[in-house]
Amino acid sequence: MADVLLEARNLSKYFGDLKAVNDISLTVKKGEVLGFLGPNGAGKTTTMKMLTGFLVPTEGSAYICGEQVTSENERAKARIGYLPEGAPLYGEMSPKGFLHFIAETHGIKGAEASDIVESAANAVNLDHVMNQRIETLSKGFKRRVGLAAAILHAPDVLILDEPTDGLDPNQKHEVRRLIEAMSLERAIIISTHILEEVDALCHRAVIINKGAIVADGTPSELRARSIYKNAVTMLLPVENAEKAASALKGIKLVAGVEAAREGDLMRLTVLARGGGEIADTIGDIAAVSNWQVAQFTVDSGRLDDVFRQLTERDV
What is the dihedral of CA 92, 94, 99, 105, to 10 degrees? Predict the structure, then answer.
């Protein structure tokens, strides 16, 4: 498992009687971006703090490039880049001064520090605010300063807690492109509650609920667990919708029909029983019955549906 750069083995964390994290094990390989998902309070941030050595686990251990993560193991911590949620910054400093300070904590000084600070700032498009006071920057720019600090020392593993929090759509796109480029030589784990981030960035996703892993797979594997897997959506005139819905409900392959009015049209979503393929059958019936279908699409499954299924129930 030489390409495994990050590993959690049976991590658990108690706060008094509260078990915030319950026996989490996972690996992230070189070149892989792992999405770490869960509702608020699921244990995402607590897990990330244990992975980075900021929090001592009650049980279990974490490893970075084969080195066990502890508060004393500087070799392991030197190989981690960490962007915590609400990353603490010194408001009275400029981004340039702050990044030079971070470089010095990694033992990088002089001309080398200047080059590295400039490179990190360019990577997240900070150049034109480098001499402003951090406290005057927008939330998005502050997030970029935190990200620049996390990547400054070219770590092998990047652990990012809500990396696009506070960014506008253009800034999110830029940060996603940067993360994608950085993932080629690194293992990256991203904690997020934004499901579009998973499709945009992640090769794999782990969903946790109440401190425990409830799913681990590629985005397409997770979507396959959705009730909307292979569902057919049709847009048709309102006057045809009732007879269409009635006919569809009588088909053995159909698990149910959802309807929503859209002006003079009705959108029918036909759920496939067991996620089976129903598009050809539905299409043939629609054509023969002359339902005047204006739009016909097949769903690959929905991450938000799977997320709700897994996190709205007890584990």
Answer: -30
Question: Alpha-carbon distance 112 to 117, whole Å?
Answer: 9
How many CB atoms are located within 10 Å of the residue 4 CB? Answer: 15
Residues 149, 130 contacting (CB under 8 angstroms): no
> Which residue has 């045809």 as its token pair?
240
CA distance 201 to 188: 10
pLDDT at position 284: 94
pLDDT single digits (tens) 143-173: 889 989 999 998 999 999 888 877 788 878 8
Q: List the chain residues with pLDDT less than 50.
A: 315
Residue with tokens 């097949």: 298
Instruction: Give the pLDDT confidence score for residue 192 in this predicted structure.
Output: 84
The residues, any chain, with a CB within 8 Å of residue 246's CB and separated by 6 or more, are none
pLDDT at 197: 84
At residue 129, the pLDDT reads 94
> How many Å apart are CA 306 and CA 133, to the nearest integer?
43
pLDDT of residue 313: 63
CA atoms within 13 A on the CB side of 158: 31
Sign of the alpha-carbon torsion through 303, 184, 60, 86: negative
Cβ atoms 23, 174 nearer than 8 A: no
Beta bridge partners of 87: none
By CB atoms closer than 10 A (0-12, 13-18, 19+), residue 28 is: buried
Query: Which pLDDT value is given to residue 314?
Result: 54
